[in-house]
Amino acid sequence: MRNALGLMLMSVVAATLIAAGGWFWTSPSRSATAPQTVAAVRAAPAPAPAPAPIPAKQAASRDPIEVTGSIAEKMPQALAPQPKQVCANPNALGVARVVEVDTTGGPGFGFEHFKQMDFLNDKEVVLTFDDGPWPGNTPAVLKALADECTKAVFFSIGKHATYHPEILKQVAAAGHTVGTHTWSHANLNSKKMTEQMAKDEIEKGNSAVKFALGAAPTPFFRFPELQHGPAAMAYLESRNIAMFSTDLDSFDFRAKNADQIINTVMTKLDKRGKGIILMHDFQKHTAEAMPTLLQRLKAGGYKIVLMKAKAPMQTVAEYDDALIKDMKLPAASARPVGSVVQTVSQ
Ligand SMILES: [Zn+2]
After folding, report:
1. Angstrom distances, CA of residue 275 to CA of 72, 127, 257, 303, 306
2. pLDDT, tens digit, 9 for 90 and up, residues 112-158
3. What is the maximum span of the chain, computed from C-alpha positions, in angstroms?
4. How far, in Å, is the centroid of ligand 1 from the Cα of 246?
């Protein structure tokens, strides 16, 4: 946070987080390839009430489309259970532990901005990737992770998800966690950003990722450029969406090559000993760095922790509907062409 008001708000947020308490369910995973179902160790606080959805007329006026409110029900609510994946690499980095997060009240992670949730043990690492899905680079990151039988958290940009839904589906199918990163990567802490605009960026992004996946994303969110707007933070808390900053920023977006990314990450990690690492599957050099970086993590004795959520994200129906209309998808009740158009004379 940059100023006194920000610090005050952070204090309030921190107090709220501490007061709510009990976000974690955690247990060691016995296998590198088949994380066990995690067991509850603390009771979950009661869910906060959901905010009132935006009236359809407002959504329609922003998106210049008509909203009927009926199509969102056609979108599935959760991913089907994934089959257990077999790891062909006996020396794989693997997944040491899976933690399940109760996102009630919107807890924050990553010590750069949120210092309440110190859940990682020494040598434990969470891999996170932002700004995808993107052709070439995201599949390359997925391959590197698969070769090491390990898992990560992806924060997808809504627009990119609508451009390349098939790639985002591959991310989810591989067992990675898919969170969101706004619709268009807007700075939610900008002076020009009204509360309504920030809400639209967040919710449209959420609905876009849901649309691309064909299932609800995980209620994990990362602010573009790590710009934590206080109003947007309060909104995410009310929506029970966990916020992710970072412990270790790879600064991969400005790296000249893969080696620079590997050196930055390993130097910071060896100093801190653990942490949530921020990278970008959107970046070519990051994709190039992954095979070696994962091997370096293994050689350094680091262990991968996968973060999941206790429940899927609840998207807002009006935004789901608006997005589907915006994508010019056919109405759910569309009849087969053969029942509409028939040859009667040749
Ligand atoms: Zn980003």
Report:
1. 37, 9, 23, 10, 12
2. 899 889 999 999 999 999 999 999 999 999 999 999 999 999 999 99
3. 79
4. 12
Judged by DSSP in three states, 235 sits in helix
What spacing in Å lies between the alpha carbon of 140 and ligand 1's midpoint? Answer: 18
Tell me, in angstroms, the distance from the centre of ligand 1 to residue 226's CA: 8
Residue given tokens 């924060």 in the structure block: 155
Taking the centre of ligand 1 as the mean of its atom positions, its distance from the CA of residue 179, in whole angstroms, is 12
Ligand 1 centroid from CA 130, angstroms: 5
332: tokens are: 């759910």
CA of 105 relative to ligand 1 center, distance in Å: 23
At 28, list the tokens.
């060691």
Rounded distance from Cα 81 to ligand 1 centre (Å) = 29
Give me ligand 1 centre to Cα 185, in Å: 6
Determine the length of the chain. Answer: 346
Distance CA 325, CA 328 (A): 5
Residue type, 313: M
Residue located via tokens 């020396």: 91
- Report yes or no on whether pTM surpasses 0.90: no
Q: pLDDT tens digits for 85-94? A: 688 999 999 9
Those residues with Cβ within 8 angstroms of residue 52's Cβ, 6 or more apart along the chain or in another chain: none
Separation of alpha carbons 101 and 78, rounded Å:
17
What is the 57 CA–ligand 1 centroid distance (Å)? Answer: 30
> How far is the CA of 190 from the CAs of 110, 185, 197, 209, in angstroms?
21, 12, 11, 23
Coil, helix or strand at residue 212:
helix
Helix (H) / strand (E) containing 27: strand 24-28
Helix (H) or strand (E) holding 125: strand 124-130
Alpha-carbon gap, residue 103 to 312, rounded angstroms: 10
